[in-house]
Structure formats: structure tokens, C-alpha cells
Amino acid sequence: MKEIKDCKIKTENLSLFYGPKQALNNISLEVPSQKVTALIGPSGCGKSTFLRTLNRMNDLIDKVKITGKVYVDNQDIYDKKLDVVDLRRRVGMVFQKPNLFPMSTYDNVIYGTRLNGIRNRKKQDEIVEKSLNQAALWDEVKDRLHEPGLGLSGGQQQRLCIARTLAVEPEIVLMDEPASALDPISTAKIEELIHDLKKLYTIVIVTHNMQQAARVSDLTAFFYLGELIEFDKTKKIFTKPKIKQTEDYVTGRFG
Fold first, then answer.
1. Domains of the chain by range and CATH?
2. Rg of the chain (C-alpha set)
3. How far apart (Å, rounded) are the C-alpha atoms in residues 80 and 75?
4. Residuewise pLDDT in 10s, the chain (255 residues)
5. Are strands 227-233 and 7-18 parallel, antiparallel or unpaired?
6. Closest CA to 110 of 92, 119, 153
7. Contact 123, 167 (CB under 8 A)
8. Which terminus of the chain faces fewer neighbouring Cβ atoms within 10 Å, N or C?
9. Closest CA to 118 of 131, 127, 105, 130
10. Beta-bridge partner residues of 21
């Protein structure tokens, strides 16, 4: 694939080890700004591990060793001087299962902004409304903002997690199988949401669902056994992949 001009994230020869086990092997990848990039491949192939290198979530795991480079906006995010808290504000993450705090919908959304020092109630109200609107949830919860977030349905909880991520105004949103625990109707809402959000954010999504990758992403990266096998425009990956291994995977012959 040609070099990407408007590159938001870039990895160069990125390798990762859990103790003696190598989970990623020399991954070089460029993620464009304000597009959706899908990471596909069988379970255990390194997709989620790669995703977590992009906001240094792997720092929280013992005996992890990383070599190579990861750049966000041409800044080396593994530079010792880098503020990791600020990085995780700029590079937000939505997990496979909703991970709400045991507090109200309002307090869940505003949690990160309070940590960042925003105490003005009017400003908080504006952030809550804006973030819930962006997450296509405002109309469903505006009359029960101060009720427990955990009382919402699974799909609503996941959109609330997305609203909480958006509230701190990230530039990049990482999504690790955000719809895998949801029913088809909730999944469709999340997919519509991803389509709308890419106008404002750079999105990287891990998914096991080939149809979902084809529907929501602009580019697709196929991982296998910790290696990046092929990366190209999604349409090309699903209709004319260059590598037979990719073709076998996307057509269901293995994986």
C-alpha cells in the first residue's frame, strides 16, 4: 500500500513479548486520520495486543517488553518523557464488555473530565449532553441522567462507555470488539455510530466479524500469529487480496 499522507498513527518494526513469548513480530503500519481501520484475524493472533500498544495499555501488564516505534502525530509515545495520562486522554479506548462505574449515567460521562479539573456545573452539563448526543444515546437517557448507568441495557451501556470516552475530547478512539457482546439491533446502532464518529475521530477497531469489518471500515489489516500479513483498503482486502492467506481467511477457509 502507498505511504499514507494524512497519517495519524504509525508503527515501525513493532514487536512485543510477554516474558519469553513473542506476541507481535515487526509490525509496521500507518493508520490514516479520520478513517476507520479494522484489525482482523483469528483469536490469539495479536490484534488486541497491537491495539493496546497504541495507548500503552500493555504497560499495566508484568514482564512486557516492546521494541520498535509507535508514533501518534509523529510523537514517539514510548518516549520516557511522554505524559501517559495525557496520551490516554488523546487515545481513548472502548472495551469488549461495557465497563461502567457504579454511579449515575451523568457521573459516568463526566468522570474523566472531573479528573482533568472541570468542576463548573454548566460546563459539565454541556459536556454530558454533547457526549451522549455523539454516542446516539441522549434521547434515550436524558430523563434519567441521575439514575444508575448499570440500569441501562447492554447496548445502551456500551454507548455510554463510548460517550464517556468522547467526553474528554480524544483524537483517536480504539475499540476492542465493541459489539461482540451485543444483540443484532444494538450492534447495528454501534456500527451506525462508528460511521458517524469517523467524521471527527480516527478509529481503530478489532473485530472477529468479517461482515462488520466490511461494513464499518475504510482499511483493514489482517493479522496472523503475531504478524501483519496484509493491509489495504477494505474493499480490496475482501475482494482482491494480494496474499492467499488473507483470501483463505476472509472467505472462511480457515481461522
1. 7-250 (3.40.50.300)
2. 18
3. 12
4. 556 668 999 999 999 999 999 999 999 999 999 999 999 999 989 999 999 999 999 988 889 999 999 999 999 999 999 999 999 999 999 999 999 999 999 999 999 888 777 888 999 999 999 999 999 999 999 999 999 999 999 999 999 999 999 999 999 999 999 999 889 999 999 999 999 999 999 999 999 999 999 999 999 999 999 999 999 999 999 999 999 999 999 988 775
5. unpaired
6. 119
7. no
8. N
9. 127
10. 18
Task: Identify residue 219 by its one-letter amino acid code.
Answer: L
Q: Vertex 211, ends 205 and 212: CA angle to 5°?
A: 30
Cα 147 from Cα 142, distance rounded (Å): 10
Q: Is the pTM of this model over 0.90?
A: yes
Amino acid identity, position 186 = S
DSSP conformation letters of 31-67: EETTSEEEEE-STTSSHHHHHHHTTTGGGGSTTEEEE
Cα–Cα distances (Å) from 216 to 119, 150, 159, 212, in that order, read 36, 27, 16, 6
Task: Retrieve residue 95's grid coordinates.
Answer: 472495551
Determine whether 143 is exposed, middle or buried from the number of CB atoms within 10 Å of its CB (0-12, 13-18, 19+).
Answer: exposed
Contact 161, 132 (CB under 8 A): no
* Spatial CB neighbours of 20, under 8 Å, sequence gap ≥ 6: none
**End-to-end C-alpha distance for the chain, whole angstroms:** 24
DSSP 151: G
